[in-house]
């Protein structure tokens, strides 16, 4: 009885050994065949990382009531506050509230800081080559009726989406507004509404 058990164990071990040898042989043959047919050993292809775009610095001109007016180069994604700081900050006669310091800068932008009592001052911000057309008026908090969208015009008191669209239709049919008073020609803008929005809009530089 004991001899029969030992014989069964040897048979099982031999079978397992045969399976192991066959498996090793098959894997080795597959590796040899793949290398032989390709002519080159197998190698892993490492993915190439995508290049990170490099943003160029911005060159802006700061004039007016600052300590050191001039041309400055600032890092990309800078804001008007950074340009003012580069120019030595506001001078004592500046009107800081006239400028939106959070406005993003664009290359070639001109920032003029008005002084108290300054007459015939240039626009607070003149857009550079990369700046949206409405940024100049945005810096002073005014809506440029020659460039504003329906959504921007809709922020004005008494101006809903319908009248906002009429303003855009008017300027497309008649050309750019030359004066703010021309808004009275738009249907739906009466004297009361005009009096409310006139201080909040501009025809741009």
Automatic annotation (TrEMBL):
<dbReference type="InterPro" id="IPR019554">
    <property type="entry name" value="Soluble_ligand-bd"/>
</dbReference>
<feature type="domain" description="Helix-hairpin-helix DNA-binding motif class 1">
    <location>
        <begin position="151"/>
        <end position="170"/>
    </location>
</feature>
<dbReference type="GO" id="GO:0015628">
    <property type="term" value="P:protein secretion by the type II secretion system"/>
</dbReference>
<keyword id="KW-1133">Transmembrane helix</keyword>
<dbReference type="GO" id="GO:0003677">
    <property type="term" value="F:DNA binding"/>
</dbReference>
<dbReference type="Pfam" id="PF12836">
    <property type="entry name" value="HHH_3"/>
</dbReference>
<dbReference type="GO" id="GO:0006281">
    <property type="term" value="P:DNA repair"/>
</dbReference>
<dbReference type="InterPro" id="IPR010994">
    <property type="entry name" value="RuvA_2-like"/>
</dbReference>
<dbReference type="InterPro" id="IPR051675">
    <property type="entry name" value="Endo/Exo/Phosphatase_dom_1"/>
</dbReference>
<dbReference type="Pfam" id="PF10531">
    <property type="entry name" value="SLBB"/>
</dbReference>
<dbReference type="InterPro" id="IPR004509">
    <property type="entry name" value="Competence_ComEA_HhH"/>
</dbReference>
<protein>
    <recommendedName>
        <fullName>Helix-hairpin-helix DNA-binding motif class 1 domain-containing protein</fullName>
    </recommendedName>
</protein>
<dbReference type="GO" id="GO:0015627">
    <property type="term" value="C:type II protein secretion system complex"/>
</dbReference>
<feature type="region of interest" description="Disordered">
    <location>
        <begin position="118"/>
        <end position="137"/>
    </location>
</feature>
<keyword id="KW-0812">Transmembrane</keyword>
<feature type="transmembrane region" description="Helical">
    <location>
        <begin position="12"/>
        <end position="33"/>
    </location>
</feature>
<feature type="domain" description="Helix-hairpin-helix DNA-binding motif class 1">
    <location>
        <begin position="181"/>
        <end position="200"/>
    </location>
</feature>
<dbReference type="InterPro" id="IPR003583">
    <property type="entry name" value="Hlx-hairpin-Hlx_DNA-bd_motif"/>
</dbReference>
<feature type="compositionally biased region" description="Low complexity">
    <location>
        <begin position="121"/>
        <end position="137"/>
    </location>
</feature>
<keyword id="KW-0472">Membrane</keyword>
